[in-house]
Amino acid sequence: xxxxxxxxxxxxxxxxxxxxxxxxxxxxxxxxxxxxxxxxxxxxxxxxxxxxxxxxxxxxxxxxxxxxxxxxxxxxxxxxxxxxxxxxxxxxxxxxxxxxxxxxxxxxxxxxxxxxxxxxxxxxxxxxxxxxxxxxxxxxxxxxxxxxxxxxxxxxxxxxxxxxxxxxxxxxxxxxxxxxxxxxxxxxxxxxxxxxxxxxxxxxxxxxxxxxxxxxxxxxxxxxxxxxxxxxxxxxxxxxxxxxxxxxxxxxxxxxxxxxxxxxxxxxxxxxxxxxxxxxxxx
Length: 283
Description:
By secondary structure, this protein is an all-beta fold. The protein has strands at residues 6-9, 16-22, 27-32, 37-42, 48-52, 59-62, 68-71, 76-79, 85-87, 98-104, 110-115, 121-127, 130-138, 141-146, 152-157, 162-169, 172-181, 188-194, 200-205, 209-214, 219-225, 231-237, 243-248, 264-268.
């Protein structure tokens, strides 16, 4: 069903996350959360540049004008193409310890949730420099993505051990329901992406792989095994968007037993994904 897993970037990330493809520049981004850094990889040459920020970095997103959004401990910042950094919204106190995973939605807004103590976090929408909570009760807000028509958002909170869905109506999320329960022994649901068949690809923290979920049938239809226990996220990349890029974590692992822990992998798939959405100035 797919080509063999190959090593894409030997970076030894503590907690690698948020692989993000920029088709305009041919660059792949990914972050290291506790290191407070993001990496920019020239996909053709393999050259990698590391950029350090002053805070833990949960995720990033592309902006329409070439800037980057950086979701951190105390808010979402905007890094300009000139290197300047500013808060991307009016200041507010966050629920939870820090931002974790996030993406730009079909409406051009940025969506991201926080992680912290049990039920202390929240899920937010950033638009027009306003950060608005959409729901609370999050413990480790994680993977999310939307169907191509934008009518459904899939989501997981790792500590809930399941993949969920919301119906999208305008700027609201409605009719929350469970797509699939993830057994504890299979790992925690982590980062997630959607393919052109509207199937979900879900990274399993502690689960040694990525699974493909048919959300309509509510079952796992495929699995990709990795030589790393803590698999954190995945995203489609490459000119035809058929490369599934997978990030992992070295945190707490014996690198003697798992020498590839924390590295970034790539698998060639017969199905592709969608271009990365970009944050827009106005809605």
